[in-house]
Design brief:
The protein is an alpha/beta fold. The chain is built from 18 helices and 14 strands. Helix 8 packs parallel to helix 9 (about 280-290) and helix 11 (about 335-345) crosses helix 14. It is globular, with a radius of gyration of 30 Å. The termini are far apart.
């Protein structure tokens, strides 16, 4: 007689909260103490909703730059500054002028060259020492609008270990520093511009705010305000940083709301948040800080900065965008932003980085891809029923939080990108110096060629070397010809059956050859002509664009071809798009047979 089985619905599961037995880690967790909380039982921030963008400050050129192994050259700094201006940042921290000649000279250059738009205010950072303050203010002579940002650490650990001073000593550093900033601004900046002088602002940061006692942070900020005397039209910026992120974001939000409630002259204060990302929650800290009363957000593109980085301005801005809030910053060409970032910082944006990585709009799962396809079909149907274009219809597609097209991407293109990285700087050089906007997969292909060169030769590859390698690989000239096929003149005609016919004068394996073929279009006919000499080539993908404006403008054509079992990209440049395409096919064929 068989044993009676227990009904399936009554069988126990393999693990429950009562039966799980996790093992101690053996790590010395006892060395660390829990972060304290804030006594704020009537906190209001949890019920708030962000309905408008905060003020933004980019500190890419200061906080971001100082964290680079190889700080930006003047040219890369200028490229970053120009990018930030184009994106719409109106407050940009441009350097630490007293740290050395490089930062000082850069600040002078953008002032003297008139690079600062009328609606942009630059900011410079200084410690609270007189000689540094004087040098910092001196860097701003002639600037139309500028802010000096002074900081000193206020936390108990710094008071005990670094300064070996009392609360009063640390408060006095902030007070004296503020007074010196004002004195040197009056001495050096009044009358320094044709309009009568620099329109001058002030920012103070109690550094290590997150670890500073709230009553003391308030005391220092009030003492600084007593010197600056904020009033109508005379704002003070008080920055409350998580210099080292040590608490959960809700505790930081409590601290921000407590300060916002207790500061006097609050209507004349721009309360600024400056999160770092040591716990990986910098974005959450910033968003909760805005809900808790912060007026202004400081950070860097893609979270560049010391240790684990500053707050990611792109992430926070795009989070707002995804909630129907205008970020007041233009992220519509996310790849251009990324290319410039990678060129300037010589660092790579990871493939999974929110909104900008190669793979963030890609689904490898078949069920995900099916849901996305159905979502696009439904979106098109709903937009048609509503009588307006898809691009104006409320977004709603499974697994895609935003429409990739809104940031210059397309789902179809991005899904085919693999996980290779390191392409941004190379793509930046080719697009900005030579007007060539390589498809993403071609960027991957060419980056491997440059990587081989750096592995072999060592050192930095210059823009000129990148272009020389590109020409040699994709654009051989008669002076430096290589490859099985050299292209001559061609003629097009139409057959009685309505097909396209092509005749091409070429040199194949060193001998003159007349190639001919027919097909559905000139390039299909050219593929047939290649088949007549034993070349099995077919199209996989292609991209074309003009390189300039006007009737004589050249076009660039990029063709991805399968050639005798291998896949290669080819490039053609010509005033005729047909000839550019034929050149691109020849480029791909020659490269495939080159090995």
């Amino acid at each position: 007689m068989s044993e009676i089985q227990q009904p399936f619905a009554e069988r126990p599961t393999p693990i429950t909260a009562a039966t799980v037995r996790q093992q101690p880690s053996k790590m010395p967790y006892q060395r660390y103490v829990p972060f304290g909380t804030v006594d704020l039982p009537d906190r209001t921030w949890p019920t708030k909703v962000i309905t408008k963008a905060p003020r933004w400050l980019s500190t890419d050129l200061r906080d971001g730059n100082q964290a680079l192994i190889d700080p930006m050259s003047p040219a890369r700094k200028r490229a970053m500054f120009d990018l930030l201006v184009r994106m719409g940042y109106k407050e940009i921290e441009v350097g630490f002028p007293s740290s050395g000649a490089t930062d000082f000279d850069f600040v002078r250059s953008i002032i003297e060259e008139g690079a600062i738009p009328e609606d942009v205010t630059i900011s410079v950072l200084t410690q609270a020492r007189e000689e540094l303050i004087e040098r910092t203010v001196e860097s701003l002579i002639g600037a139309p609008r500028a802010t000096v940002h002074l900081y000193n650490a206020t936390s108990p650990l710094f008071r005990r270990v670094v300064f070996k001073g009392s609360r009063a000593d640390v408060r006095q550093i902030a007070v004296d520093g503020t007074r010196l900033v004002m004195e040197y601004a009056e001495k050096l900046l009044a009358g320094s511009t044709p309009g009568g002088g620099t329109v001058f602002g002030y920012q103070y940061s109690p550094e290590i705010f997150i670890d500073t006692e709230l009553d003391f942070a308030l005391e220092v900020c009030e003492a600084v305000m007593d010197v600056w005397q904020p009033a109508e039209g005379r704002e003070i910026i008080l920055n409350l940083p998580t210099t080292v992120e040590r608490s959960t974001p809700n505790v930081y939000a409590d601290k921000m709301e407590w300060m916002s409630r207790n500061l006097s002259r609050r209507e004349f204060v721009a309360l600024s948040t400056h999160p770092h990302n040591d716990r990986g929650t910098g974005v959450a800290s910033a968003e909760l800080a805005i809900m808790a009363g912060a007026d202004r957000v400081e950070g860097c593109l893609f979270g560049q900065g010391e240790r684990t980085g500053n707050l990611d301005l792109v992430n926070v801005g795009m989070n707002l965008f995804s909630q129907g809030v205008d970020p007041m910053i233009d992220f519509s060409d996310i790849d251009e932003i990324r290319r410039t970032y990678e060129y300037c910082n010589q660092m790579v944006v990871p493939e999974r980085h929110p909104y900008a990585g190669d793979l963030v709009y890609t689904s490898f799962s078949g069920s995900h891809q099916d849901a996305i396809k159905k979502g696009f079909d439904a979106l098109e149907a709903d937009a048609a029923a509503a009588g307006h274009p898809v691009g104006e219809h409320t977004w709603g597609v499974p697994y895609l939080p935003i429409d990739p097209k809104d940031v210059g991407r397309s789902y179809e293109a991005v899904i085919r990108v693999n996980s290779q990285s390191g392409k941004g700087g190379i793509a930046y050089v080719l697009k900005n110096d030579h007007k060539l906007d390589l498809p993403r997969r071609m960027q991957i292909e060419f980056s491997k060629i440059i990587q081989q060169k750096t592995d072999t030769d060592g050192g930095e590859v210059t823009p000129a070397q990148i272009w020389a390698a590109f020409e040699d690989e994709y654009l051989p000239t008669p002076d430096a010809a290589w490859g099985r096929i050299q292209l001559g003149e061609y003629r097009l005609a139409t057959t009685p059956e309505g097909k396209d016919a092509i005749e091409v004068e070429a040199v194949v394996d060193g001998a003159p050859v007349a190639l001919s073929g027919t097909g559905d279009g000139p390039i299909d006919a050219f593929f047939a002509a290649l088949h007549s000499i034993g070349v099995d080539a077919r199209l996989l993908d292609y991209v074309e664009h003009t390189m300039s404006q006007g009737s004589g403008a050249q076009a660039a054509s990029y063709w991805e071809c399968a050639v005798d079992g291998s896949v290669r990209w080819g490039v053609g440049i010509d005033t005729s798009i047909v000839r550019a395409s034929i050149k691109a096919v020849v480029s791909a064929v020659n490269r495939a047979q080159r090995g």
